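Thread: quick sanity check before group meeting

JM: Hey all, I'm pulling together slides for Thursday and realized we never actually wrote out the predicted structure for the chain we discussed last week. Dropping the sequence here so it's in one place. If anyone has concerns about the input, flag it before I start.
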Amino acid sequence: MPSLTFVMPHWLYWSGLIFFPLIAAYSLSRQRANPPDTRPSLFIAYMFWLLAGYLGIHRFYIRSAWAFVFIPAFIGIVYCTSQAREVRDDLSRTFAAMEESQTAVASAKDEVGRGTPDAAAALAKSETELKSRTTQYEAAKAVSDGWKGRARLSGIALGVMLLIDAVLLPGAVRRRRAAEAAQRQAEAVAPQAPSLHEGGIGEDPTLKVHTPFTDVIDRLSALAGRYVAWWALIAVFAYYYEVIGRFLFNSPTIWVHESTFLMFGMQYMLSGAFAYREDQHVRVDVVYAKFSPRGKAIADIITSVFFFIFVGTMFWTGARFAMDAIQVGEHSFTEWGIQYWPVKLAIPVGAALLLLQGISKLAKDIMIVARNGA
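JM (edit): ok, ran it. Output follows.
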């Protein structure tokens, strides 16, 4: 099988983190503005064909039994590729042994030319050993080439089926849409819009308090949280590429794992304020849950001292880390060499958002106490 040598450019990685959430949010807003069409889409079918056609997912999407035809070819590629990896050690070992014998034969011939005693016997022994090791190497190579050839044939078969389906897919989608339309008309069932729910655990009494000042901060926290939430979807595509490259093309990457754990680290920092707004942070609430709304507000005001000390320290130290990373152009020590300063910069930015959300919560708690829990 051919190998995959793609390495994600740094500019593509950072621009993806910037623009992907904007595009995704725009697509979601368009979807909410128009009544959803639950029938199979040709665009989505081709997306499945492109990204997961090797498993017949595009056929499963339109509920076609032809999807099961793709699975044996995929299993054949995975199995043959794994067997080729298993015999790689034998191939490397026998090749190294053959090269060692070739060196020994060349050395023995030099000794024969110098007239060294017993050189002829040593040459005969080296040649015999070379012939044996060459036979072992050729046998191992034949086994390896056999598995690679079977994997190649399975890949060709799978590729041919995908090319055929690329032509047949529009007609298959049209037939499926017509069948579902007829079924829906017969059942007289109207499509229902998906129900979306968002909220915290509901113990924080400030969740129902709103002021113009705190609403601005709450909207900022929500915007940051929803923005970075779309990053999680990027990881699906990245690890999809990793799985395909590793198990189908025997081409594992370095950049996929590094890019995703850096992305999730930034996501963790930047979404902290949104989680705080939604009352989703971990809290020992054995006693807190039994308080009245006014008692909870008083407890939150008292403990906010420690909150602001922690967040302030995180902002100050994070800003220093980010400035140092920017000044020295810090980057990772892997072959990918991604820049670290945007990751470090997420620490003070996330701390600033969390600090603002803490101010919003403190203002609401004070209002609750001033209103005597009302």
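AS: nice. The longest helix spans residues 119-187. The chain is about 75% helix and 0% strand.
JM: adding both to the slides.
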